[in-house]
């Protein structure tokens, strides 16, 4: 099963999560984390190798009008692309981002996280602007005592950091429309139910889970955002 062949979804962007091969997560570990921190996400398909390592997973969030396809990749091509990305991004990177980029320069393993928009009910609009993602200092996710996901990473019982996004980044960013046109459309469809915007909450949550389980670094190769 692949969302690229599902006409109910349109591809939006692809994020990479680079990590050391020794920290490659097991499929059951990812499933448990999703069940704990994102219980409303629906796992449509998943695959593991003979050792139980995550190979592929397809997740949908109908509430967010979005879906993700996570695909494991490894080898020389992954290493070459990581080195190219570091060279192209380091000139504009902050000191914190540069430190993270240096962590991926020798990585031969990563997850490709393909982000899709559910278009069955929202095909008349397109979202073109990607929100700025970052780790928040204050947690809003619960950490249960004895939780495998948090305990394995040495998290405290009081909480952990969380990725978040600025919803204002999605205001008035629909393709090909001026702000005054958007105001007219917003007023006309506000109560009609014709327009629902894709919510990046799903992408943010899954990137956080993958980064924390694999102790990896996520980045958007198109925009240069480093997480």
């Amino acid at each position: 099963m692949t969302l690229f062949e599902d006409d109910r979804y349109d591809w939006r962007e692809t994020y990479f999560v680079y990590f050391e091969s020794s920290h490659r997560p097991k499929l059951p570990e990812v499933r448990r984390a999703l069940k704990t921190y994102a219980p409303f996400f629906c796992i449509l398909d998943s695959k593991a190798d003979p050792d139980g390592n995550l190979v592929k997973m397809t997740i949908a969030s109908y509430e967010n009008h979005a879906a993700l396809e996570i695909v494991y990749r490894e080898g020389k091509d992954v290493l070459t692309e990581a080195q190219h990305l570091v060279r192209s991004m380091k000139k504009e990177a902050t000191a914190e981002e540069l430190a993270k980029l240096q962590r991926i320069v020798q990585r031969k393993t990563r997850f490709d996280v393909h982000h899709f928009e559910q278009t069955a009910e929202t095909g008349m609009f397109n979202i073109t602007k990607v929100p700025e993602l970052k780790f928040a200092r204050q947690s809003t996710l619960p950490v249960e005592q004895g939780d495998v996901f948090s305990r394995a990473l040495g998290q405290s019982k009081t909480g952990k950091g969380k990725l978040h996004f600025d919803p204002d980044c999605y205001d008035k960013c629909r393709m090909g429309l001026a702000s005054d046109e958007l105001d007219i459309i917003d007023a006309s469809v506000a109560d009609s139910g014709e327009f629902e915007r894709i919510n990046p909450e799903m992408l943010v949550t899954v990137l956080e889970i993958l980064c924390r389980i694999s102790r990896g670094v996520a980045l958007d190769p198109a925009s240069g955002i480093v997480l």
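The longest helix spans residues 76-89. The beta strands are 9-19, 42-48, 54-61, 66-74, 109-118, 134-136, 162-164, 217-220, 225-226.
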